[in-house]
Design a protein that fits this description.
Elements: H1 4-9, E1 30-31, E2 36-37, H2 49-56, E3 72-77, E4 81-86, E5 109-112, E6 118-121, E7 136-140, E8 144-148
Antiparallel strand pairs: 1-2, 3-4, 5-6, 7-8
Length: about 150
């Protein structure tokens, strides 16, 4: 998984899909094309994968909001990873605005800063792209270069 280490740094994000279909039923063990389970019973709430994707967003793998269509945001959770889902993007700025999840940030990245407070982060090319409470541009395995706190400060 691309963001295993990164997820350890992130505040908990939410995933709007929750592993269930629109009717709240798990589609595990169901034939989505017919709506029948292994015993042949029908679940009226079962929908096709295309319909679930349309309702939840494109489902594309992402690391940042800019990798998703403009009507979607990059949502992450520890169980499934990060995917583009329908929803409003946050507006939090790098190293300045606090966050409780990536959904609060313009980039979709929320990391721990000084004193255990979480701040919005983003991709960076060098320290000049980072500011405030996240002044260091560092390579994070499986993620790339993002702004992080000063580990000595």
């Amino acid at each position: 998984m691309r963001r295993v280490l990164f997820l350890l740094l992130l505040a908990a994000c939410t995933d709007s899909s929750g592993g269930t279909d629109a009717g709240g039923s798990s589609s595990v063990g169901m034939d989505a094309s017919s709506g029948r389970d292994a015993a042949g019973t029908t679940d009226a709430a079962v929908t096709t994968d295309a319909a679930v994707t349309d309702a939840a967003g494109s489902g594309a793998v992402c690391s940042f909001n800019r990798e998703c269509p403009t009507s979607e945001r990059c949502e992450c959770d520890e169980a499934t990873g990060c995917f583009c889902r329908t929803g409003a993007r946050g507006t939090g700025q790098v190293g300045v605005d606090t966050c409780t999840s990536g959904n609060d940030c313009q980039s979709a990245v929320c990391v721990e800063g000084p004193g255990g407070v979480f701040y919005c982060s983003d991709e960076c090319g060098d320290a000049g792209d980072c500011q405030g409470n996240l002044p260091i541009c560092a390579d994070i395995a499986f993620v790339g270069r993002i702004c992080i706190r000063d580990p000595n400060g």
